[in-house]
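User: structure tokens for this one?
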Amino acid sequence: MASTVSTGKLIGAFNDVKGKTFYIIFEETYDSNTYPRTPKWCARAIGDLAAMMRLIFWSGSSAEGGMLKGTGGKSITPEGYIGGFMKELANPVEIQDQRFELSVGDGWDAVIGRAEFPKTLAKLEAIGESEMACALDQGQTVSVSLFGHAEALSVIFDGVDLGAWRILKGYNTPVYAPRNPSLGYAPAKVKPPLVDLPRAVRISPDDPNLLTQHADGSWRCDGWNYSYVANYITGLWETELKYPGSFRSLIKSYRDALAGAPVMPSDDVTIVVDTSVALGAYAAENVQRIQREFDCKTIDGAIHIPFSADFDFRYHVTHLPAEAAKWVFGGKEEAGPQRQAEQLCLLAS
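Assistant:
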């Protein structure tokens, strides 16, 4: 399976004309399935501290499933990846002001792609940049400066819809620019609060899929163990801002708790598929296959599928969309396995 290999990290920082600090995240990478494997720098996004934290944690979550590797293709942990960027945030290079020409166009290297422009238009209008949005919508080229239009550039090139590489070329990455820790983010560590862990059970000792109890009390399968951890990491940036230095211990504790989840009871378990939920073509075909190949009953419009430890059966039912399929224990929707522990005190080291 192909993966992205991260070989270098860099954070640039500057104060805009209003005195607000913005950051630019750069990363040197290559794809494992391309040759020659030449690492290249790329400006990923422009944004304030919250935007940087959100992107760093989102990217770091990919390491949990192995889609993100370290230098030489070595396995890395999300904690290590995030920690590397946190060091860069603490001591960023100082970015100088520069000008850019913004326009909407076609092609992969357009400054603002036509397909992405509707989202860009909405984001610019949301921050009061209606004049810029209107000019771009009319096909005009808009001249901007990094310091004078940092807010607008941060919503355009947020690293989600559009990358900052469209205006900041990789060959100009300021690898050797002077460092300025006064622009950095290096807060003192704070211990996190008591955290509730999800109620989770494994489907079987040899199956990576987990069931978790949702807010409505139903048990549903949202994927493999690593995907739960990755989703947790993706949203952890806000906690890290409130409790600096806590991410390593929080991730480890969450991962360990899911790895130690008990195996669900295999007797009297039923998967109930709500047929009123609209399904995509693949999911609908999967439901039809299950109805053909396994013992199912339709009760009040819902498909009831008795659980089986058969490998093929488990494969198909765990690929049912979580919003349509719930797992019922003992014939009662509110019944379920006991959680291993009600709460786990997660303390930052």
